[in-house]
Amino acid sequence: xxxxxxxxxxxxxxxxxxxxxxxxxxxxxxxxxxxxxxxxxxxxxxxxxxxxxxxxxxxxxxxxxxxxxxxxxxxxxxxxxxxxxxxxxxxxxxxxxxxxxxxxxxxxxxxxxxxxxxxxxxxxxxxxxxxxxxxxxxxxxxxxxxxxxxxxxxxxxxxxxxxxxxxxxxxxxxxxxxxxxxxxxxxxxxxxxxxxxxxxxxxxxxxxxxxxxxxxxxxxxxxxxxxxxxxxxxxxxxxxxxxxxxxxxxxxxxxxxx
Length: 258
Known about the structure:
The structure is a single chain. The chain is of the alpha+beta class. It folds into two domains: 5-177, Deoxyuridine triphosphatase (dUTPase) (Deoxyuridine 5'-Triphosphate Nucleotidohydrolase, Chain A), CATH 2.70.40.10; 182-248, no CATH class. 17% of the residues lie in helices and 25% in strands. A hairpin with a 5-residue loop joins β6 and β7.
């Protein structure tokens, strides 16, 4: 089993690392139909979250210096919370920097894509992504968010995910040989045509149906992993990811601790 190890740095805050859940609160509130979209649902779970330890507010005045972005822990305009802080202005230009209290290590040949939480938009802030060779690097990394709205208070809550960890095998993308081809050359083009005809017929049914009935109509072919022309599911079809929780290293072979 490949190991993803998080070596805790001394004298740093405790930031939990958890498997990313499928649920999104904004879907619950406004877009429950999104749970019917399996690609979105799978992307939600495709990695581990690191969670913010304490609430704070960030405000950027639009300038380029580090002083133009202020991070406020505690209440009001002061900085009443004097505990260790992971969020700060470090690069200027409206960039909020999180100092992650772990040195992460992947197996040989594996990188770590560090990105924002999937399908979790944040008003006024956008996550920046990085790809790190975590099988050898002994330096820590930061997670950075670009503040996109000046002169506004942008809040980060306690327990809110600040990044998503996605291991990637190094060089895998570069092994692909991209090419164009006409649809007629696709071996299972007939199955695509069956899907297309089924989808068009379903769309006409929805238009003709009572709106209350149409709201509950749902084609489930992809969710089930089947083609419209048959009910046998694709044998490796996944409807959810079950990532393991982070555990203590007690009991690991010594080689796994290095």
